[in-house]
Amino acid sequence: MSEHNYDVIIIGGGPARLFAGIACARNELRTLVLEKQTYPIDKACGEGIMPSGVNNFKKLGVAHFLEKYPYHLFKGISYVSAKGSVAEANFAEGCGWGVQRTKLSAALLECAETLPNLEIQEGASVACSLEENPEVSIKNNVFHPKLLIGADGLHSRVRKLANLEATIPKLKRWGCSTTF
Ligand SMILES: Cc1cc2nc3c(=O)[nH]c(=O)nc-3n(C[C@H](O)[C@H](O)[C@H](O)COP(=O)(O)OP(=O)(O)OC[C@H]3O[C@@H](n4cnc5c(N)ncnc54)[C@H](O)[C@@H]3O)c2cc1C
Predict the structure, then answer these.
(1) Atom 22 in ligand 1: residue holding the nearest Cα
(2) Fewer CB within 10 A of the end CB, N or C, for the chain?
(3) CATH 3.20.20.150 for the 8-73+95-167 domain, yes or no
């Protein structure tokens, strides 16, 4: 078993986590992202990046990787209930970007691959334990990062391991996206 040293390990490589990985690497932290799927990754999503998200993409130098892909500006959100009542509002400031999920995934990966402090392993099946210190093992490697970020999605195993399960809200929300 060989030992590797990373400051941060992120389990799960969705958009939020690739973004966190880029932020860690830009702060000189040796960071490893472990993703079980292969890129680009698709997922049911309304594909809307809110203005605050767009600003953060610009701050972290991700925006120009995204701008080479088609995106649509949107100025607000409207919710339509099953009975047809509508609630809608424009953003107080700025516009959102409507971007296809796979393009977002590809752009974030391209940005991540330019950072020497950031390593991405895709197709990774990970085991981890949160006893005294976080331990992550994959194939013949064992890691003891200073920080472990559990970003393995809606049914997160890391969240379960950390006893951070929350009660699931009763009210279900349905999303459907329409293109004009
Ligand atoms: C219908 C719908 C519409 C939505 N619309 C929007 C929207 O318009 N705008 C918006 O901002 N958000 C939207 N969201 C929410 C958005 O999809 C999530 O907030 C976002 O995907 C969270 O990103 P993430 O990286 O945390 O997790 P995910 O995108 O869920 O990524 C988790 C990743 O972890 C990986 N993984 C899981 N287990 C392991 C493991 N054991 N080892 C390694 N990897 C693992 C998975 O393969 C996956 O790639 C929507 C969600 C839904 C359901």
Answers:
(1) 16
(2) C
(3) no
